[in-house]
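My current task is to audit a protein record that another person submitted. Alongside the sequence sits a line of tokens, each denoting a local backbone shape. Please read both lines and tell me whether the tokens look consistent with the sequence. Do not assume that whoever made the record got everything right. Thanks in advance; the entry in question is below.
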Amino acid sequence: MDNSAGPEFSDDTLPVEIDVAPSPEVLECAVDNDLDSLTTLLFQGQSQKVREDAALAIGMLMGEEAVGAFIGLFAEDDRNLRMAASWGLSAIGTPAIDGLIAALSAEDAATRMWAAYTLGAIGHCKAEVALGKVLKDDDAGVRWWASWALDQILQRHGCCNGC
């Protein structure tokens, strides 16, 4: 897929781990419901895998309560932290959609891009109308990821508009 948004936001450069087994240190914290340690691992984990696993665990443990905090991380300069936040929101799933739709209106283009990407990763048709409006965003990267997200919804549901 041609990506006119630039190399920072291409499909090829998104850091997706193939190893699906949780990191041992994250698993231990999650079993103990140790949110403080999981938060430390999210920000200071020794690898991107540990950071993403921590975000997933936080998302699963906290659910909707973590949505605002994760969306706030989209404005951070650390791209790996933004990806981990996206993973955490994906773990929350449907309860994160309203917050992500609201984030499509953020002043910060990076926040809008990551919100669109995450809505595509979740793939729920509830986001379709909001993503359609974002196709007219001033930022090319936001438009590209909104288009990608709509494509993900179409692939999952075989239709759009009221799936």
User: Anything to note?
Assistant: The chain is about 60% helix and 0% strand. The radius of gyration is 15 Å. Residues 70 and 92 are 10 Å apart (CA to CA). Confidence is low (pLDDT under 50) at residues 9-17.
